[in-house]
Design brief:
By secondary structure, the protein is an alpha/beta fold. It has helices spanning about 15-20, 25-40, 75-80, 120-135, 165-175, 190-205, 235-245, 260-265, 275-280, 285-320, 325-360, 365-405, 410-455, 460, and strands spanning about 40-55, 60-65, 70-75, 90-100, 105-115, 155-160, 180-185, 215-220, 250-255, 270, 470, 490-495, 495-500. About 50% of the residues lie in helices and about 15% in strands. The strands form three sheets. It has a five-stranded mixed β-barrel. The chain is flat.
Length: about 525
C-alpha cells in the first residue's frame, strides 16, 4: 500500500500537517479584526425589523431590504439621544461600526447614529397615524371644550430651561398676571412623549381645593424645530392624553407652519407659545379701560334716567289737584263730627244707665225666690215621673224579648232538624254505591299484578309436566355440560322433590339440522279454470 493512501473524506497527511491550526476563539477574533479593519464606519440604509429594547436600555434591531438582513445594536447612551421614536417598518439610515459577535457567529453593526431615511417616510407614518386616530374620533370638533375667559391658574407643560417658558411668563405678565404652575418635561428625544403625556394626566388628577391648585387651562408648548425634533408630539400616547384631558388644553408646539397631531386633539391650537399665552388671558389694561369706560357710561346713563324720571313725575304732578283742595272736604267733615261727638257720648251714657236700672229692678229677692221655687217644682214632677218611665222601658224590653222568643219556637227548630236529617239520609244512600264502586276499582288494580305473577311463576310450568334440576348447592342447572358423573342433583316436580345421582358424563348432542324447505311446485290447473283470466 502506498504512503499517500488516505481514507475518503480526510486530507492527505502532508496537507494536514502544513495547515495552521486555530482555536474557535482565535478564528472568531481574527474574523472580527478583519471585518472591523476592512469596513470601519459605514452608512447603511434599510427598513427596521424586530425592534426590541432591553431592560438595560440597549436597543436591538435588524436592517433589511428585499434581499438581505443585517443585525444591529444601539447602546443605551446613543439610543437616548434619538430625536424620533423608531418603529418596525420605518426606513432609516444608520451610521456605525461593522463588527462580529463571536458568541453567535454572526456579524452586526454597532449603530452610533440613526436618522429617518427622509421626510417622506416620517410623513407617511404621520399620515397613517393621523387617519387612525381621526377614525377613533379623537379629533372630532364636538369633543373640544371652550377656553375659560379669565383662568385663575394656568398649567404649562414644557421644558423648564428653554426660552419657551420665559416667553409665556413674560407675555402673561404683560397681559394679565396669573398663577402659573410649570410641569417640567423633555420636549425632544427618548422619553419625551411619555413625560408629556404623564404631565397632562398629572394635572388632570389634581383635586379641587388641594394643596396644589388645579389649573383652569393647560398649555403644552415647545419651540420650533424639524419634523424629527417635534416627533414626540406626534406619538399616540401624547395625542390620547390631550384628547382625554378634562381641563381645556391649548397646543403651542413649533412655529405657525409646524403642525403636529396634538394640535388636532387639543381644544385650541396656538401658532406660537407666545400666542398661547395671549389666548389664555385677556389684556388687563384693555379690561381696566373697558371697565372704566363702562363705569362712565353707566354714570351718565343713570343721570339721564333720573332726569327723565324727574321730568315725567313733574309732568304728571301738574295734572293732579292741589293737596289743600283734596283735604278740605275731609277737614270740614272732621270738624262737624268733632262737634257731634260730646252730645253722642252723653246720649250713649244715659242709655246705658237706664238699661242698668231696668236690670237691677229685675234682680229683686222675691223674684229670685219665685224662680227657685219654680225650678224645685219642676224637679219634683220629674222625680215622680221617673219610676213610670223606668217601668215603661222595662215593659218594652220584655216585649222585645218575647218577640225574639216566639221566633225561636220549637216547631221551627224541628223543621230545621228534619231538613238536615233528610240531607244526611240522601248522602247515606249515595255513600253505599260509591263505596261499592271504589272497592271494585281497587280489586281490579290488585287483580292485574296477581295475574301477571301467576303467568310468570315457574310452578305453572311444572304443572305442564316439566321439572327443575338443581345441583347440590341449590343452583339451577340449565345445560348438561355442568353435570359430571357421580354428581348429586335435586329434581323438583309439580308435587315434590326427588334426589338423583348422575351415572355417566353427558354426551354432546348433534346439532339439529334445519328442515329443508319444500318448494311449492303446484301446477296451475290446465283444464278447469274457475277464475277467469284478465287478458
Amino acid at each position: 500500500m502506498s504512503d499517500h493512501s488516505h481514507f475518503p473524506g480526510r486530507p492527505p497527511q502532508a496537507a494536514r500537517s502544513n495547515a495552521p491550526e486555530y482555536s474557535v476563539s482565535e478564528l472568531s477574533l481574527s474574523l472580527k479584526r478583519t471585518v472591523e479593519e476592512n469596513f470601519g464606519y459605514v452608512r447603511v440604509r434599510g427598513e427596521l425589523s424586530g425592534l426590541k429594547r432591553a431592560a438595560s436600555g440597549h436597543m436591538y434591531l435588524a436592517l433589511k431590504d428585499d434581499k438581505a438582513v443585517l443585525d444591529g445594536v444601539m447602546w443605551k447612551g446613543m439610543a437616548g439621544r434619538l430625536t424620533f421614536r423608531p418603529e418596525d417598518g420605518l426606513e432609516v439610515i444608520c451610521t456605525g461600526k461593522l463588527t462580529t459577535y463571536p458568541g453567535r457567529s454572526k456579524y452586526q453593526i454597532v449603530i452610533d447614529r440613526m436618522e429617518p431615511a427622509g421626510a417622506g417616510a416620517l410623513m407617511a407614518l404621520l399620515e397613517e397615524r393621523k387617519k387612525k386616530l381621526a377614525a377613533e374620533g379623537l379629533f372630532a370638533s364636538e369633543r373640544k371644550k371652550p377656553i375659560p375667559y379669565l383662568p385663575q391658574v394656568i398649567g404649562v407643560v414644557t421644558s423648564p430651561t428653554g426660552a419657551v417658558i420665559r416667553d409665556i411668563l413674560h407675555r402673561l405678565e404683560d397681559r394679565f398676571p396669573r398663577h402659573v404652575i410649570v410641569w417640567p418635561v423633555l420636549v425632544q428625544g427618548e422619553g419625551a412623549a411619555a413625560q408629556v403625556a404623564e404631565a397632562i394626566e398629572g394635572f388632570n388628577r389634581l383635586e379641587e381645593g388641594g394643596d396644589i391648585p388645579r389649573p383652569d387651562v393647560l398649555i403644552v408648548a415647545r419651540g420650533g424645530g424639524s419634523l424629527e425634533d417635534l416627533w414626540a408630539f406626534n406619538e399616540e400616547v401624547v395625542v390620547r392624553a390631550a384628547a382625554a384631558s378634562e381641563i381645556p388644553l391649548i397646543s403651542a408646539v413649533g412655529h405657525e407652519t409646524d403642525t403636529t397631531l396634538i394640535d388636532y386633539a387639543a381644544d385650541r391650537r396656538a401658532p406660537t407659545p407666545t400666542a398661547a399665552a395671549e389666548i389664555a388671558v385677556p389684556v388687563k389694561a384693555d379690561l381696566v379701560y373697558t371697565v372704566q369706560d363702562l363705569s362712565v357710561r353707566l354714570g351718565r346713563a343713570q343721570q339721564r334716567l333720573l332726569l327723565d324720571r324727574r321730568q315725567r313725575i313733574e309732568g304728571l304732578g301738574r295734572g293732579l289737584p292741589r293737596p289743600q283742595d283734596l283735604l278740605s272736604l275731609s277737614q270740614q267733615r272732621f270738624d262737624e263730627l268733632a262737634d257731634r261727638l260730646p252730645r253722642a257720648l252723653q246720649h250713649l251714657s244715659d242709655k246705658q244707665h237706664m238699661r242698668l236700672d231696668t236690670l237691677g229692678a229685675r234682680l229683686r229677692a222675691d223674684m229670685l225666690v219665685r224662680d227657685l221655687r219654680r225650678h224645685q217644682q219642676t224637679l219634683a214632677e220629674k222625680t215622680v215621673r221617673l219610676p213610670r218611665a223606668l217601668r215603661h222601658m222595662c215593659e218594652r224590653q220584655h216585649m222585645r224579648l218575647e218577640t225574639l222568643g216566639e221566633r225561636l219556637r220549637g216547631d221551627i227548630l224541628v223543621q230545621d232538624v228534619g231538613r238536615e236529617r233528610q240531607k244526611v239520609t240522601m248522602l247515606a244512600e249515595r255513600l253505599q254505591p260509591a263505596m261499592t264502586r271504589l272497592m271494585q276499582q281497587q280489586k281490579s288494580r290488585l287483580d292485574s299484578p296477581v295475574r301477571l305473577f301467576d303467568s310468570l311463576n315457574y310452578k305453572r310450568v311444572l304443572e305442564r309436566g316439566y321439572a327443575v334440576i338443581r345441583d347440590s348447592r341449590g343452583k339451577t342447572l340449565t345445560n348438561a355440560a355442568r353435570v359430571s358423573a357421580g354428581d348429586v342433583m335435586d329434581i323438583e316436580f309439580r308435587d315434590g322433590h326427588v334426589s338423583a345421582q348422575a351415572v355417566s358424563a353427558p354426551m354432546p348432542s348433534e346439532p339439529v339440522k334445519p328442515a329443508k324447505k319444500t318448494k311449492n311446485k303446484t301446477k296451475p290447473p290446465s283444464g278447469d279454470e274457475r277464475q277467469g283470466r284478465l287478458l
